[in-house]
Amino acid sequence: MAKVISTEELKKKIDEGGDFYLVDVLSPNSFEARHVPGAKNVPNSPNFAKEFDEQIGAPKDADIIVYCSSNTCMASVQAAQRLEEAGYTNVTHFQDGLAGWQNAGYEFEGEAA
Predict the structure, then answer these.
(1) pLDDT tens-digit profile of 29-55?
(2) How many CA atoms lie within 13 A of 108 on its CB side?
(3) Cα–Cα dist 42/65, whole Å
(4) Which residue intervals of 19-93 are DSSP H helices?
(5) 12, 80, 82, 102: most buried by Cβ count inside 10 Å?
């Protein structure tokens, strides 16, 4: 089971400029509208781990954080599980997602930001 990171912990990690991969697993349309700063978009799908590997190319031990829309959205839970099944060893789930980021008053990137 993936570790969980809070909104505040993620904001601190972004501000500190740590070496990690932040992945928005929602649709490209959602990503273009708004996303957490610095995130890459790899939509959740049955082939998520393969697509992640092709698009991101992260080492298996890389620090990877996945998120979706909110703590009721299961897409990022599935994506984290798929990464772990593919052998990624340091996967974290940002369970609050876009809703948590917005509720904390943090800025987004994207067209609607």
Answers:
(1) 999 999 999 999 999 999 999 999 999
(2) 20
(3) 12
(4) 28-33, 48-55, 75-85
(5) 80
CB 11 within 8 A of CB 106: yes
d(C-alpha 65, C-alpha 88), whole Å: 11
- Tokens 């932040």 found at: 22
Kindly list the structural domains of the chain, giving each domain's residue range(s) and its CATH number in brackets, ordered by start.
Answer: 3-103 (3.40.250.10)
Please tell me the pTM assigned to this model.
Answer: 0.96
- Helix or strand or coil: residue 24? strand
Return the closest-CA partner of residue 9 out of 96, 70, 102: 96
